[in-house]
Amino acid sequence: MAGVSSPEIRVLVVDDDALVRSALTMMLDGADGIRVAGEATDGDEVPALVDAHAPHVVLMDLRMPRVGGLAATKRLRERPDPPEVVVLTTFDSDENVLHALRAGASGFLLKDTPPAQIVEAVHRVAAGDPMLSPTVTRRLMDQAGADSSDRERARTALRSLSEREYDVAVAIARGRSNAEIAAEAYMSLSTVKAHVSHVLAKLDLENRTQVALLVHDAER
Fold first, then answer.
1. Start and end of every Response regulatory domain (predicted)?
2. CA triplet 129, 84, 12: central angle to 5 degrees?
């Protein structure tokens, strides 16, 4: 889904734990232009609620009894103009976070993330600037690794980029926002956004997280 232009960001909270849903809803609803448009107790409820409420952001638990967050994320990202997905995880116990990111999730949050950072994450992903925590993202990516065929495919894909586009892709992999890339590379924000769009189009990827994963595969 393109960046949100309206003042209100609609969020769908998906978690089978009623206490987690309640805490997230209390934290987010009405906070800095955010409205919780709905709650789901399992991934199989997500399509109907997305149709009903058109959320900009879905906070998606990974482990649910009927349809888990990985499958639900894949299904959502196959829809036209899908909402952004941020996976929720306890991190140490969830092994599918990286697969969710590859499936098109815009980022992830630990369930014990401070409230202010969760609000910030919702705003960032709604604006098209996924929430990438460099430290935790690097740890997740290091767990997965890439075999030689993945590495070569990634390197071949990156060779299709111009030198400037490659620099932007690497900056994305380092967790830099558009504003940070603009400042570090002495480019205007609009130029950075244009380069990001070109990178996504040339690499046939959906979001910045997938760019980061591709760069990581190429560097292994």
1. 10-126
2. 125
